[in-house]
Amino acid sequence: MGFEGRKKGKYTGAERFVERMREIQEEVKAVLEKAQADMKKYADRKRSDVEEYKVGDLVMLSTKDLKYQMVGRRTEKLTERFVGPYKIKKIVLPNAVELELPSTVKIHSVVNVSRI
């Protein structure tokens, strides 16, 4: 027909290339797993166990991020560090609770436990 078909033998160059790519892939996978373990170790240093809150518990709310949301308390220097106690109405997530807040506190009633 005027052309030759494919050779029946093995392609050693292609096999070497495939083997080299497998080796590189395994090396990269090992390096990524080590990097992931290192990142987890450093991230876990700052984490702590969350306290278990129950509905009806009384908690104090931090005023650190509530500069102007607290009506009648404009002087930041003289403002208390914590206000309350406020009653927990509902546990929304393991790290978020809904509080019974008075009308003078102009924030959403669901707050993160880091603000308690």
Give structural notes.
- The chain is α+β, with helices and mostly antiparallel strands.
- It is 30% helix and 21% strand.
- It is built from 1 helix and 4 strands.
- It has a 4-stranded antiparallel β-sheet, with no helix packed on it.
- A hairpin with a 2-residue loop joins strand 2 and strand 3.
- It is rod-shaped.
- The model has no long low-confidence stretch (mean pLDDT 82).
| Lateral arrangement of strands in the main beta sheet | 1-2-3-4
Strand count: 4
The stretches of 5 or more residues where confidence is low (pLDDT under 50) are none
Major sheet attributes:
4 strands, antiparallel
Keywords:
single chain, 116 residues, alpha+beta, 1 helix
Outline of the structure:
The chain contains one helix and four strands, in the order αββββ. By secondary structure, it is α+β, with helices and mostly antiparallel strands. The chain has a four-stranded antiparallel beta sheet, with no helix packed on it.
Helices and strands, with pairings:
Elements: H1 12-46, E1 58-62, E2 82-93, E3 96-99, E4 110-112
